[in-house]
Write a structure and sequence with these properties.
The protein is of the alpha/beta class. The chain has a domain of 236 residues: NAD(P)-binding Rossmann-like Domain (Rossmann fold, 3-Layer(aba) Sandwich). The chain has 12 helices and 13 strands. Strands 3-2-1-4-5-6-11 form a 7-stranded parallel β-sheet, sandwiched between helices. A two-stranded parallel sheet has the order 7-10. Helix 1 runs parallel beside helix 2.
């Protein structure tokens, strides 16, 4: 018998790719619950193709409202809680809405679980939760899951997303203990790939190159990150759901640490940029280094990052370049808005 799976936030970047991965397995009955914000309240063409191919059930609603959950079943084998608002642009422009939306999604999901009979829940968190631990206390890099969750400035808009994810980690682990469902947590580390949206660093870089920025500014050039290609992130997420320990947290990422300068210059190489680069100040609230220790996920789940950052970047840059060629109004609108700000 097929496993019954619910993807809360399944129309988003990671959720879409989990649905595709599970659908191709053919052993899951998949449902997606979302407000479809990223497509203007509609199901986009790629998602519709996926829905039709795998007979995915769709539930549309504003899940910051408790009554939206009334349309769902109450007996899922697996619930992936992916729903949240994410992106540096969003946290800087509407931090109060990040708090409201993400907190409401977490609380309403937990209260729905109180009256449901779900087998296991996976909550998706972020490396942003301990951004301050490395800066303030010089914790080890690569960083294990045991590092305390710490942010640097409680009033900075940048950390509103992290605060809601800390709430979610605590909420899901403690509710699961009291209500009797299983729960595992994944902390993602810079997941990227085609169709990730336009509120993230790589799509921004692509658009800036396409706008012929010259000299090209390298913001935070010496900061480091480890980028996790979407195919690897999806596999790690599903492994966590199906093999992860109850109440356990797992890093899903890559231990291949690179500088932002390397990332930008390779993107420029892929796009044929041959002009000048100049160093520029880093973005406020951005940490100097980040790289996960994935030893726990490797030992307990059999997870490994298979796609190196350059291969993943080549695929991602090509997708965005092709997409923007076919949708020039998006490219032009992005820069019109930038110039007005």
């Amino acid at each position: 018998m097929n496993k019954k799976v619910l993807l809360l936030g399944g129309a988003g970047f990671i959720g879409f790719n989990i649905a595709k991965f599970l659908g191709n397995k053919g052993t899951y009955d998949i449902s997606i619950a979302d407000n479809f914000f990223r497509a203007g309240g509609k199901i986009d063409e790629l998602l519709q193709q996926l829905v039709d191919k795998h007979n995915i059930q769709i539930f549309k609603g504003d899940f910051t409202q408790p009554n939206a959950f009334e349309q769902l079943a109450k007996d899922y084998d697996y619930v992936y809680m992916l729903a949240s608002v994410v992106g540096v642009d969003y946290v800087n422009k509407m931090p109060h809405e990040i708090i409201r939306i993400n907190t409401a999604l977490i609380y309403n999901t937990l209260e729905w679980l109180r009256h449901s009979k779900c087998g296991k829940v996976l909550f998706t968190s972020t490396s942003e939760c301990y951004a301050g631990a490395i800066e303030a206390f010089d914790y080890a890099i690569p960083t294990p899951e045991s590092v305390p969750l710490t942010i640097q400035d409680i009033g900075h808009p940048r950390f509103t997303y992290a605060v809601t994810k800390m709430l979610g980690e605590s909420g899901f682990i403690n509710y699961s203990r009291q209500l009797g469902f299983e729960c595992s947590i994944v902390r993602y580390h810079n997941v990227f790939g085609p169709r990730m949206g336009f509120k993230h660093v790589i799509p921004h870089i692509v658009q800036r190159f396409r706008n012929n920025e010259n000299p090209f500014k390298l913001y935070g050039h010496d900061q480091t990150r480890s980028f996790n290609y979407i195919d690897d992130a999806v596999e790690g997420t599903v492994l966590t759901m199906e093999k992860g320990g109850n109440g356990e947290v797992y890093h899903i990422g890559s231990m291949e640490e690179i500088t932002i300068e390397e990332l930008v210059k390779y993107t420029g190489e892929l796009l044929g940029f041959k002009d000048e680069y100049v160093y520029a100040p880093t973005y406020p609230g951005s940490v100097a280094r980040r790289c996960p220790d994935i030893t726990k996920a490797t030992k307990e789940l059999g997870y490994e990052a298979k796609v190196d950052w350059k291969t993943g970047l080549e695929k991602t840059v090509k997708w965005y370049n092709d997409y923007l060629d076919a949708n020039t109004e998006l490219h032009e609108s992005f820069y019109d808005n930038k110039n007005k700000s």
